[in-house]
Amino acid sequence: MKITDVKIFPVNEERLKAYVTITIDDSFVIRDLKIIMGHSGLFVAMPSKKRKDGQFKDIAHPLNQETREHIEESVFKAFEEEAQAMGESVESLRKAE
Prior knowledge:
Largest sheet: 4 strands, antiparallel
CATH topology: Arylsulfatase, C-terminal domain
CATH superfamily: Stage V sporulation protein G
Number of domains: 1
């Protein structure tokens, strides 16, 4: 699997840092991944849907750690490039407001 495109859509919220769209093998798109500031740093949240019981359930997600790491690596690289293009450091975006 090759991630052929990553689009970052920065947001100005306390915990939510960006929405992300990835394209896999130039043929499959996954929208609404999120870069979120958690208690131990940034992480990539998969797209999810709120269920009737109020819990959130992932709509799409990796089936193994290797794939998760591959996605996160690609997303964080694009996030860093976007931050630099906006004239910000990733460190400033990593800080909780």
